[in-house]
Design a protein that fits this description.
Elements: E1 2-8, E2 12-18, E3 23-27, H1 33-42, E4 45-50, H2 56-59, H3 62-68, E5 73-76, E6 87-88, E7 94-97, E8 100-106, E9 115-119, E10 122-126, E11 129-130, E12 133-134, H4 142-153, E13 160-163, H5 168-178, H6 183-197, E14 205-206, H7 207-213, H8 222-229, H9 237-249
Parallel strand pairs: 3-4, 4-5, 5-6, 10-13
Antiparallel strand pairs: 1-2, 2-3, 7-8, 8-9, 9-10, 11-12, 13-14
Helix pairs in contact: 4-9, 5-6
């Protein structure tokens, strides 16, 4: 199975898993044109669509794709029922597509019904975790997103974080501003700046690297706690997570 990323809009990625006989699975097709172009160019045969949440930049291409390929099964959370989903899936379920077993788990925070799909080594996490950061909290709470991050962090270190946006540079700039003396963060920030200067992708991320450079996974880190304690005394990791998200919301 090959993992392909298709750029969409300004900074989205639509992920495609393609097997040896060119049958494929499409993840979060926010628009149809780049996907249809890739299908035509590569001779792919789409079998299924996976949706992580209801935002239009993740579901907008579903109607056109289903018009072209009426057999497509569209898996998604309940919040995507009016976005083209044909089979609602939820926490704890497993779905078998093209011989790949995908486990589904709830990751509320960005939206209240957000889900992730995991099939070793791929995690399709939509707008929950980004490389070096986390999604905005449009519908959920910091505590919910913190728990969603704990679910992701329980996966194997070689898990590929297939998130939906090229936000890594902005996330690392923020992280470097919080912990300017952290060598892992500074080194990765430099690497990402070099990649983006060449218009190269920074994704997918790797979970073991995220544990080093993603502050939202480091809420029990002594350096981060010392930084936060200069401003306020927060006892719980959920509170420190909320502090980070608030800082990121206002970071420019």
């Amino acid at each position: 199975m090959n993992l392909i990323s298709i750029p969409a809009f300004q900074d989205n990625y639509i992920w495609v898993l393609v097997n040896d006989d060119r049958r494929c699975i499409i993840v979060d097709p926010g628009e149809s044109a780049p996907v249809l172009n890739a299908i035509a160019e590569n001779g792919w045969q789409p079998e299924a669509i996976l949706l992580t949440h209801h935002h239009n930049d993740h579901v907008g291409g579903v109607p056109d794709l289903r018009d072209q390929f009426p057999h497509l099964v569209v898996y998604g959370p309940a919040e995507t029922q009016d976005k083209g989903t044909t089979q609602v899936v939820k926490e704890g379920e497993n779905i078998l597509i093209l011989g790949w077993d995908f486990s589904v788990f709830a990751t509320p925070g960005h939206t209240s019904g957000h889900i992730c799909f995991y099939s070793t080594p791929y995690l399709f996490c939509g707008d929950t975790m980004f490389s070096g950061g986390c999604g905005r909290l449009f519908e959920g709470t910091p505590a919910q997103m913190y728990q969603s991050f704990q679910k992701i962090n329980a996966l194997p270190g070689d898990t590929l974080i297939c998130c939906a946006h090229e936000y890594t540079l902005a996330n690392m700039k923020f992280s470097a501003s919080i912990l300017p003396d952290d060598r892992a963060i500074q080194d990765y920030y430099l690497k990402v700046k070099e990649l983006r200067a060449k218009n190269q992708k920074t994704l997918p991320g790797i979970l073991k690297k995220e544990r080093e450079i993603n502050l939202f996974l480091r809420t029990n880190d002594i350096d981060l706690i010392e930084k936060i304690n200069k401003e306020t005394n927060l006892q719980q990791p959920e509170e420190r997570f909320a502090w980070l998200r608030s800082k990121k919301d206002n970071f420019r």
